[in-house]
Write a structure and sequence with these properties.
Layout: E1 6-14, E2 18-25, E3 31-37, H1 41-56, E4 68-72, E5 75-81, H2 88-95, H3 100-119, E6 122-123, E7 132-136, E8 139-142, E9 149-150, H4 168-172, H5 179-189, H6 191-196, H7 198-201, H8 206-209, H9 222-225, H10 233-242, H11 254-260
Antiparallel strand pairs: 1-2, 2-3, 3-5, 4-5, 6-9, 7-8
């Protein structure tokens, strides 16, 4: 793809490492999003190539696909479909908390996408509402694999993600596995976030909701971070399954969560 093939319409958002713009393909009229790394040179190029290579190896209905790339000198831009509904954060701000049956529908899709990624050795490591796009409640899509890691190729031990959504084992240091996605999905995104999390219902940001650490190097236990009274019975059970401390029993695999949320499952 060539940069001249697209007409930039607006800036949709910016993160720590990239800027995402809305563009229209000049010949087809199709709207797309283009992700541009803020850092130019070799570092930005390596980050873009990493995300590009990960996305090219993924094909799942609940993962935003890569349409192509735009190559420039020391810059690689990623072209992806435009999802009109915006991200989960915006959706919840507009609509408010979901009903339980709606939340089940969304969570099942997220668990299915994570099951697929983990089967391929990919841990997302930055699951949060801003990285979940809502085409409809029947079709949500996970995006932004820039901080992902392949745990089958090398051990994961670096500090990656967004504080407030990180699993405890990422914050405390040492090696960790794909279970960090399960923690983010269940403790910080799933039932708490889309049903009744205080930073949705009370207008709080995740950093205010993320309680002070119990010591200088250990995050607060999950059971202290979200009052159980805010969650329905299904949410309390899900949180208990997803928010295990790394020193305790293992967190469930994504396949277990997907099956648990499927009413047709035995």
């Amino acid at each position: 793809m060539a940069e001249d093939d697209f007409c930039v319409l607006s800036t949709l958002g910016a993160g720590s490492f990239s800027v995402v713009v809305l563009a229209r393909h000049r010949h087809s009229g199709r709207k797309v999003v283009i992700k541009k790394m803020k850092m130019l040179g070799q570092t930005g190029l390596e980050m873009a190539h990493h995300e590009c290579n990960v996305m090219r190896g993924l094909s799942h209905p609940n993962i935003l696909p890569l349409l192509g790339t735009i190559e420039r000198a020391f810059q690689l831009q990623l072209v992806m479909p435009y999802v009109r509904g915006g991200d989960l954060r915006d959706y919840l701000c507009r609509k408010g908390p979901m009903r339980e049956e709606e939340a089940r529908r969304v969570f099942r899709q997220l668990a299915s996408a994570m099951e697929y990624c983990h089967a391929k050795g990919i841990a997302h490591r930055d699951l949060k509402p801003e990285n979940i796009l809502v085409q409809s409640l029947n079709r949500v899509k996970i995006t932004d694999f820039g901080l992902s890691g392949n745990f089958l190729q090398q051990s994961m031990d670096s500090l990656q993600g967004t504080l407030g959504y990180m699993a405890p084992e990422i914050v405390t240091g040492g090696t960790y596995g794909p279970g960090v996605d399960i923690w983010s999905l269940g403790e910080r995104i799933g039932w708490p976030e889309i049903l009744s999390h205080p930073w949705v219902t009370q207008g709080m940001g995740p950093m205010e909701a993320y309680r002070e650490p119990t010591s200088s190097d250990e995050p607060a236990p999950a059971e202290q971070s979200i009052p159980s009274s805010l969650l329905p019975s299904g949410g309390r059970e899900l949180r208990e399954r997803c928010s295990l401390h790394p020193a305790e029993a293992r967190a469930p695999a994504a396949s277990e969560l997907s099956a648990a949320e499927d009413p047709a499952a035995p």
